[in-house]
Specification:
heterodimer, A: alpha/beta, Nucleotidyltransferase, domain 5, two-stranded parallel sheet, 20% strand, elongated, B: alpha/beta, 5-stranded mixed beta sheet, 4 helices
Amino acid sequence: MPVRRKKRLDLVLPTSSMGDIAFLLIIFFILASNFMKTANVEAEKPASEDVDAVEDAQVSVAVDASGKYYVQGVEVSRGEIESAVTQAIGDHRDKPVHLIVDKSLVRENYMPALEALGSAGVKVIFVGDKL
Amino acid sequence: MARQRKDRAKAEIETGSFSDISFLLIIFFVLTTTLSKPTGRLVEIPSAAPPAEQKKDDDKTPTLKVLGDRVLFGVGQSEGEEVTLPALKGKLAKYAFATKPEKERMVVVEVADDVQWDRYFKVVTLVAETGGVVALVEKEE
């Protein structure tokens, strides 16, 4: 008597919806992402006991280790800081400006940025790490 | 004579690789997304006033002189005494800035030329933590 082989079930994983799921995830990440405007600036942050988690920045001002000034990641001259910040912040004046300065810089490097932000009349968050 | 129908070329877009592309994009976004919250301290900086004006009514204003690795705490025009940062926090806490209007929350911070941002940051965030408003002192040319 011939031995009958049992019919094997085809094990196929349905993958047609994977693309849809992936696109949904992409849309989520695009909407939820906040790209660092100062990623190109090399500045070692200082640390203090008196810092906490703060809200994300609308505008970032940075001073790198060589004393160059950046507003939203774009290099500006000392005299252009105030106008660049005012232009970048627009009508969102209630939003704070993040100030990132390399910890080794001395007064003549960081004070112009502070004075410009004071003159611009914006809220400033000193960005640093928690000790 | 029988008409022969031309074979129509099937117009289909190949979508098999879409999910691969999408997942590559997801990996890109996962790697470039900042998941950590930034840390810092909101510091109130009033627009700088000319030095002469700052000196008018600062008789009772707490004044900090940040000199290299030392901090001097004084009131008004006094020279000030050297304090450590924890001691400074205690002194400023006594002013109870949180209950006062902005004008009475001023803390004048004078900085020597060689003071690094690291030091200045620690002092200013400490002042802000106690509710003080940092008054910048412009250098007299």
